[in-house]
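Protocol step 4 of 5: obtain the predicted structure for the target chain.
Materials: sequence only (see below). No template structures provided, no constraints applied. The aim of this step is simply to have a reference model before the mutagenesis design in step 5. Sequence pasted as it appears in the construct record:
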Amino acid sequence: YPVLELGYSNMTDTTELFKYAVSGTYGRFGMDYNVLPTKDRSVHHSFTVGFRYGVSLFTQKTEDMNIENGYWGDLNGDSYEASLRGHWIEVVSGLKAEVLPNLFLGWLVRIKFHLNPDMDPNVTPALVPGYGNAAQNRAFGISYSISYKIPLFKN
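Step 4 output (C-alpha cells):
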C-alpha cells in the first residue's frame, strides 16, 4: 500500500566557536507490503517491508564564527546562510498490532542512504530534516506510532 509521511524539524546549537541553526520540512513517499497472510479482513495486524524516497527543503545558518589560533591568528567569519535540498532513499520494516478495537501500536526500523551528501560545499549540514546528520552516507532510525482506525465501514 502507498505511504506518505510529512514533517518539520529544526535545531540550534551555540558553542564558543559559532552559532548554528537549521530548519525545514521533509517528505517521504513509497510503498509498504504486508507479509502476513490476510485471509480474514477483520484482523488488522501487520508485518511490513517497504521502501521510501525522501526529500527535505531546509535552510542552515552559521553566525559569529570565531576560531582562535595563536600561530596563524584568529579567524572571525561572517554569517553564512544557504537554502538546501537533501535527497535519500530508505528501506523499512515494521510491526503494527491492534491492542484494543481500532487502536494500534507499532514500530518501524529504517536504514537511510543519502543521495547528495555534498549538497553544500561550504558547511556540511549537521541535520537534514527527516534524514539526520548529512556527514553520514547511511543512517539508521526507529519510529513508533499510536494510531486509531476510524471505523467508517462495518467488517
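Step 4 remarks: DSSP finds no helices and eight strands in the chain. The two ends are 19 Å apart (CA to CA).
Proceed to step 5.
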